[in-house]
Specification:
Largest sheet: 6 strands, parallel
CATH class of the largest domain: Alpha Beta
Strand order of the largest sheet: 3-2-6-7-1-8
Number of domains: 2
CATH superfamily of the largest domain: P-loop containing nucleotide triphosphate hydrolases
Structural class: alpha/beta
Shape: globular
Number of helices: 16
Oligomer: single chain
Number of strands: 8
Radius of gyration: 23 Å
Distance between the termini: 55 Å
Order of helices and strands: HHEHEHEHEHHHHEHHEHEHHEHH
Length: 332
Amino acid sequence: MVLNTLTADLNPAQLEAVTTTDGPLLVVAGAGSGKTRVLTHRIAHLIRDKDVSPYEILAITFTNKAANEMRERVADLVGGMVDAMWVSTFHRACVRILRREATRLGYNASFSIYDDADSRRLIKYCLNDLNLDNKRFPPRNIQAAISNAKNELIDYESFAGQEGGFFHEKIAEVYRLYQQRLLEASAMDFDDLLMITVELMGAFPDVLERYQNRFRFIHVDEYQDTNHAQYRLVNLLAEQHKNVCVVGDSDQSIYAFRGADIRNILEFERDYPDARKVVLDQNYRSTQNILDAANAVISNNSGRNDKHLWSDRGEGEKLVRYQAQDERDEAA
């Protein structure tokens, strides 16, 4: 049976995550627990054992490196069929959608994508046009404020309607002109790729339906690092079939400063009341003494998915605690 070749090296929790394919699934994956293996084997199981077309599978992760690794591992299991899948970052998936659909919103299909330097340069031009001093209103700070707003799906009109004092009002003016200039140049910044995709799907039900029908099975890695725009996009795409598998670990959430919202993973079962949860708590990297120390420290966190990492690699050497005098001593 094909399934046996895919699952021979999986532990019971990994096997459950791989073979639970219908409906929403939360995989709480501790560090070193083999989450990439679970994701790739789950996708291969869908294709080889469940006769799901690769065309109907979407797999999202956060870096191009991780996406390429996932694609290569899936290719090792299913061969060239991986080419019909979308395995990409959030931003890359949005670019593919927008290249086809953005003309509906007044952009060219060949719209430009501004990187951070391009974005900051345009903000400087906007400040100049509005006679605002870029020392009093640093472009980098303005850029961060606009980025944060977009990650929360707050457009310039909604931003202008918020109470916030003089500085907020001036940022709103820059935000409005900045978006106007982007549209005139048929350009988007990185944050636009997400916000405008969500806007597009809200404005055009036929577009939303097209991608909901296409992506019957959705996988999202590092779900604890998603921001509100990414969360909303996943919810929209999964709304019809609800075959959405998210993998993550609230204990590894470190990107709140970039807009990541840990509530996305902590409240997954609220968003999907019929969701199943699988906890990957067997660690393959460390010995038990290291894990016991990590468990003791992280257990003090109040907002987390409960789990207790363990290993069959033995106790290992005892840990040594060292209190450095300063950062130089720590680095040494």
